[in-house]
What we know:
Layout: E1 6-8, E2 18-20, H1 23-32, E3 40-44, E4 50-58, E5 63-72, E6 80-84, H2 89-102, E7 106-111, H3 122-136, E8 143-144, E9 148-149, H4 150-155, E10 162-166, E11 184-188, H5 196-203, E12 208-211, H6 220-235
Parallel strand pairs: 1-3, 6-7, 6-11, 7-8, 7-9, 10-11, 10-12
Antiparallel strand pairs: 2-5, 3-4, 4-5
This protein binds S-adenosyl-L-homocysteine (SAH).
S-adenosyl-L-homocysteine (SAH) is lined by residues 166-168, 170-171, 188-189, 191-194, 212-214, 217-218, 220, 223.
Amino acid sequence: MSAKIRLFVDHPLGVAQPVPLTREQAHYLFGVMRVSVGSNVALFNGADGEWQAHVAEAGKRGGVLVCEQPSKPQSLPPDLWLLFAPIKKARTDFIVEKAVEMGVRRILPVQTAFTNSDRIRQDRLQAHAVEAAEQCGATFVPEVAALTKLDQVLKTWDTSRYIAFCDETLAGDAERLPSKSGPWAILIGPEGGFSPDERDRLHHLDHAHPISLGPRILRADTAAVAALTLWQMALGDWA
Ligand code: SAH
C-alpha cells in the first residue's frame, strides 16, 4: 500500500537505503502524526523520485526510515519562474504555497519601488515550499531565492527567458500571453503596483511581454495564481 504521509528529505534514496531523520522530522512523524515502527511513509528528495519507506527506528529526537521500492518517477515542473514583490506575511506565504502547487521551477521575491517590506524570512518561505510539495504530490521543491532588487534582477537577466509582466494598468485591455515556447518568468507587483519608471523600463525590454489579467484589478496573491493558471494552460504541463 502507498503511504499517505509524504516527507521531503535531504538524503539519497534507493533500494534498502536507510534515511536518518532530523529532530523536526522525528517530531512531526512520531509526535504529531503518531507514526510508529513498521509504518509506511513516502519519501522524495527532489532528485530520486518518490520512494515507499518504512519506519525502522523511532525516537523523540530522531529515527531511521528504510526505502523499499520506488513509487513515482522524478519529475520537474516546466521551466517557469515566479517573480513577485513580497506583501503581508500570510499573503506572501500563500503565494509561495500556490506557486509550488501550480508548478514552478524557482521562486524569486523581488523588491520593487513600492514593495512594502525590505526583508523576507527566506528559510520560512522555503519551509512552506517544502510543505506544499509534500502535500501536493510533487517530487520537486522549487528554490525560494533571496529577496533581490528588481533593478538588479533585470540588469543580470538572461534574455533568453521571457518575462510575462503582469501590468495592472492594462486591466481590461487585450494584451495576452504570447505563445512563445522557451523558459519563462511571471512578474507580479506589490499592492501599490509598479512605479512609472519600472513600467517604462519593462515596456522597453524585448524579452518582457506586458499582459493583462482581465478587466478587474486583482490582489497580488490572486494575480499570481491567475497568471500561473494562464501560463500552465497555454505553455505548461496542463495540456
Ligand atoms: N495598487 C494597484 C494594483 C496592484 S495589484 C492599482 O490600484 O493599480 C498587484 C499586482 O497584481 C500588480 O502589480 C500586477 O502585477 C497584478 N495585477 C493585478 N490585476 C491585474 C490585471 N488586471 N492585469 C495585469 N496585472 C494585474
